[in-house]
Write a structure and sequence with these properties.
mainly alpha
Length: 173
């Protein structure tokens, strides 16, 4: 009797493991397929095979909706509050700062950039934008400090190299 019970328990555990593995595999394939579908929609949009409105409708409630909205020049302030992913939020915050800067609102742009911290993945690019803004405002000392920070912390990256070039250019002036 005990032997039969042990066998039933083993069979049950094996079935449970198979069920979980199958469910995980199914979910993974579903996500891959959904990502492929979204990529096809964005591709069709970029190649102008579907209208922006149609693309926006098909990708609503995904990060691609924000991408298409931004591409269409729509204000994405509301999108920032609805996005849950921290990295995407910071990226859009930087983009909003750039938009404000280009619209002649550099001080508002700087306030947005102040919300991006050293732990954020886009910190170097946000810092570079901040330095450009300070330079445009005539605060070359603040810009130099930021360029120095970028060069010392990110010297071998694109941002560090741009910062170094800007430092050299400021020295020539």
């Amino acid at each position: 009797m005990i032997l039969n019970r042990d066998i039933l328990i083993l069979i049950s555990i094996a079935l449970l493991i198979a069920l979980v593995a199958g469910g995980v595999n199914y979910w993974k394939r579903y996500q891959e397929e959904r990502l492929n579908q979204l990529a096809e929609i964005v591709y069709a949009y970029e190649k102008e095979k579907i209208s922006p409105e149609e693309a926006l409708e098909k990708v609503k409630d995904t990060p691609y909706a924000v991408y298409i909205s931004l591409d269409l020049g729509k204000d994405f302030g509301d999108a920032l509050t609805s996005i849950k992913e921290a990295d995407l939020k910071k990226l859009l915050l930087e983009r909003k700062a750039y938009e404000l800067y280009k619209k002649g609102k550099p001080k508002e742009a700087l306030k947005k950039l102040d919300k991006i911290n050293k732990k954020d993945f886009n910190y170097p690019s946000a810092l570079l934008l901040k330095a450009f803004i300070y330079e445009d405002l005539g605060y070359t000392d603040k810009a130099r400090l930021i360029y120095n920070e970028l060069f010392s912390d990110y010297g071998e990256t694109y941002f560090g190299k741009v910062a170094y070039a800007r430092l050299l250019e400021l020295e020539i002036r």
